[in-house]
């Protein structure tokens, strides 16, 4: 359902990107297939927007909360029969806030807002703090804060959409430790962020439709690394790759000091960030990595990898740049030559053996990407 009353700037700061109906239906189907007696649970959407996730449910009690009063007014019209509260559920919100006792079975459902305030994407229109947030929930991303808020409510199940990066990036998984210590993944599917009409205007990234169950075993990061992910269109993928971060630095070192003759490379994050950012740069900045010239070929690899991102499926967007190291080393001269061709000024800074068999790069990526 498309929201109608927020400006693009307000949508960005509140992280309000409303969910396509087919994803609402898919998540509800996952719940019905995996939660015994789901209709005996109280259902709560603590960022309900227009109430899309509440319209197809007939449980014991259905509650929708949102900080946006106009969204709640719309939800009451579109999804009557539910209980609604105008509330900031990231601030001083407990079960008592909605008169829900600790013994009631609770299932939280919905698509919580996400808005990474540290991301360069749309940074010019983002506020550092879009709403009041409890200290123990405050993170750089609203979506992560919402998952932490779910943990405080201790639901039996959590059925939500969130960026897959919350799970597969080690730093995010660590931020979500209170949640992942208590909840395991029961079922899921992966969808493309570009299906959300107001976001991902360039390269899409993976969104997971996830059903979590309260469990003492939780979801360890090692479990994630060994997981087989499935997409909504029947494809599968995993994270069992070798990554270029195992061979070179992704971020600047605070101990490095720039001097004439150094070769500089822009900070690396994930594949989608690489798609937007620079690679080799000529001027020093806080985002500049001073490369180890003995590892110059690996930076050329990343530089050339950037040209092939368009061939990668969206679901690898939040992964680090991956590599088949043995296959790369066999043709590294070709990668270096390609980078020298792209950035002629590098020829004054690094020696290389020219090898213009560029078809070998095509062959390498065709195998690496399984094209």
Describe this structure as you would to a colleague:
This protein has 371 residues and is an alpha/beta fold. It has two domains: 8-237, Rossmann fold (3-Layer(aba) Sandwich), CATH 3.40.50; 242-368, no CATH class. The chain contains 13 helices and 14 strands. It has a seven-stranded mixed β-sheet with strand order 3-2-1-4-5-7-6. The protein has a three-stranded antiparallel β-sheet with strand order 12-11-13, with no helix packed on it. A two-stranded antiparallel sheet has the order 8-9. Helix 10 crosses helix 12. It is elongated. The relative contact order is 0.09.
Keywords:
371 residues; 14 strands; 7-stranded mixed sheet; 2 domains; single chain; Rossmann fold; elongated; alpha/beta; 13 helices; 3-stranded antiparallel sheet
Q: Provide a count of the helices.
A: 13
Helix vs. strand class: alpha/beta
Could you say which overall geometry the principal axes of the C-alpha atoms support? elongated
Span between N and C termini?
Answer: 35 Å
Specify Rg, calculated over alpha carbons. 23 Å
- CATH homologous superfamily caption of the largest domain: Vaccinia Virus protein VP39
The gist of it:
With 371 residues, the chain is an alpha/beta fold. It folds into two domains: 230 residues, Rossmann fold; 127 residues, no CATH class. It is built from 13 helices and 14 strands.
